[in-house]
Every structure is written in C-alpha cells, then in structure tokens.
Amino acid sequence: MTKYRDHKEVYTRDYSRWSVYPKIPKPEEYQAQEKLRPGSEITIEIRDIDEKGRGVGYYNRTVIRVNGGGTVGDKVRVKITERRDNEAYADIVEWLQK
C-alpha cells in the first residue's frame, strides 16, 4: 500500500506552491492600475488613424480614440470624455511631442 491518497488533481498543492514555473495571473490582475473614467487625464502616443480621422492610441489594453486631430507618432495628454467596454473617447488637452 502506498501512503499517498488517491486524488483526481494533476498536481498537489505542494507541487504548485514550490513550482519553478511562473504564476499565471488571474483576470483581475490584468486590469489597469488606473481606472479610465470620464474626466481622467492620461498621456498616450497616437499610433494609428481610424476611418473617421480620429487618432487611435492604446492604454492598458484599451483603445483610445482621440478627437481633435493629431498624427501618427504624436505624444498627447488627453481627457477621457466617454468610456465603453474596451474603448474610450478623448479630447486633446495638450501636445507633448511631435
């Protein structure tokens, strides 16, 4: 007889605790540190232009659509005006770099 009990899990708790493999983050750990809300100001780089002529930037896996111009490569400080699931709309407050 073995002294280990039968279990259906692949790994025991001790094995996963002392594993050399990195911990897989939980979904809440992927969320942004700073919540994007209407009125908050952030700094982004415009990386693309959408079909309506708005600048497109990214902030922590969220697409930011910037009203008011801008070209690819501009660093701008924007103020969030509207927020949806994975998208936010913003207006330019100031240009930091062209």
From TrEMBL:
<dbReference type="Pfam" id="PF01938">
    <property type="entry name" value="TRAM"/>
</dbReference>
<protein>
    <recommendedName>
        <fullName>TRAM domain-containing protein</fullName>
    </recommendedName>
</protein>
<feature type="domain" description="TRAM">
    <location>
        <begin position="35"/>
        <end position="94"/>
    </location>
</feature>
<dbReference type="InterPro" id="IPR012340">
    <property type="entry name" value="NA-bd_OB-fold"/>
</dbReference>
<dbReference type="InterPro" id="IPR002792">
    <property type="entry name" value="TRAM_dom"/>
</dbReference>
